[in-house]
Amino acid sequence: MGKDYYLCLSQDEKKYFTLPDGWVPLHFVEAKDGSVTASIEQMTLEALSAPVGTPPVKEMVARAKSVAIIVDDATRPTPVAEILKVLIARLTDSGFSGEKITIVLAIGTHPPLEKEVLETRIGSGILSRYKVIQHDAWQSDLAPVQLPGKDRVVRINPAVAEADLKIGISSVLPHPMAGYGGGPKIVMPGVCSFEFIRDHHTRHVLHPRSTAGVTQGNPFHEGCLEVARAVGLNFSINCVYDRQGRVVRIIGGSLEAAFGEAVKNCFEILGHRFQEKVDVTITSTYPHTHGHQFFKGLSAPNVVTKPTGAVLLVAPVVTPVPAEFLASIDVIKEKSGGNPGPYVEDKLSKGMAFLPDKPMDYNMAMTGVFLRPKIKVKLVSPAISAKEAETMGLDYSTSVEEALKSLKKSYPAARVAIFPSGGLIVPITDW
């Protein structure tokens, strides 16, 4: 039998494999046939010229004296440099001078980008010609913005607060807590204070509606949206992807209209119906390829795999899992007296961070370590060691073939789902 199935390791690289005899593939959720017909430049120009819910950017610029362009960091696949090139050209062609443009990296509580990575992210020459700021969620001069309700204030990056025109560039992808990433998340948590991000995330992460593919009634998403409204994100640029990780549409416009349209497109392209749970899910974490972000690749398998089943998880990470993150796992185990699950759940149920002095993405990823369903996970990743996998509560295999051979012994007649890009799946279920 040939190599019948594959997993995406990047947009251009695939790992092919064959299922063991006796295994039944119920789902192979690969990208639909067809090539992308428009370039990033063409899609961006359309998003700027024919937006939903706002006038074209050219008209909005005419009324502004300063612009903050808020972009996401390298943990997202957004083609920031290509979009920025078109957007800045549109601004300058409209008579807007370069000194009035500030580019803000919405890194939330992520670490700042090194200069070389930053230049690649935003494009050659941008760093020297324009003011570029990497948000610091701990800085002392964050600007207060009033939220609806008495005495409710969020502190945000002052460059964003002071700009007349605020433009966000992000990717709309399934998100394990917010329903979908991108859109309002470029503001919250992107450019907010650590304290506000901490309180929001810990308060809402355990809510049953805080899950991938859900925005209605999702307090995690609604909290992000409320902040973005109050801050005044004037124009939102949203990238939509196919299951191979290719941008197929860029939608610009008002915060809610453009994001809503992008979510609709994302659901239509990435949604897949499941009638029943499977014994084994074989998946890549792509496009989540940065350190502990790979845990997001378990979001869909957790939904569609039986509690007695297993996940073969291929993590093609391009940056290592931080040593600080791994050390924090041991800290939680020690603080909890060796019973971390209930300890973490108790803290979150009270709206408390269990790692109060660590980045919030550490706290959120820890829910994947300690609160995920008790489904066996076989991890394959050249950038993660067997010891690191054990620390994170995962089994380790040196290759896909070794993992399949091992799982075959436990599941001789498995019914299987295969996700070439596990981060680009929205499970549709009746349960």
3D architecture notes:
With 431 residues, the chain is an alpha/beta fold. It has two domains: 181 residues, LarA, C-terminal domain (2-enoyl-CoA Hydratase, Chain A, domain 1, Alpha-Beta Complex); 230 residues, LarA, N-terminal domain (Rossmann fold, 3-Layer(aba) Sandwich). The protein contains 15 helices and 20 strands. A six-stranded parallel β-sheet has the order 3-19-15-16-17-18. α1 packs across α3. It is globular, with a radius of gyration of 22 Å. The chain starts with a strand and ends with a strand.
CATH topology of the largest domain: Rossmann fold
Structural class: alpha/beta
CATH class assignment of the largest domain: Alpha Beta
State the share of residues found in helices, binned by percent. Answer: 25-40%
Indicate the mean pLDDT: 95
Topology:
Blueprint: E1 5-8, E2 14-17, E3 24-28, H1 40-49, H2 57-61, E4 67-71, H3 80-93, E5 101-105, H4 115-122, H5 126-129, E6 131-134, E7 143-146, E8 153-156, H6 158-162, E9 165-171, E10 174-175, E11 179-180, H7 194-204, H8 219-231, E12 235-241, E13 247-253, H9 255-270, E14 271-273, E15 278-284, H10 299-304, E16 305-314, H11 323-335, H12 340-349, H13 360-370, E17 376-380, H14 386-391, E18 395-396, H15 400-410, E19 415-419, E20 426-428
Parallel strand pairs: 3-19, 4-5, 4-9, 5-6, 9-12, 14-20, 15-16, 15-19, 16-17, 17-18
Antiparallel strand pairs: 1-2, 7-8, 10-11, 12-13
Helix pairs in contact: 1-3
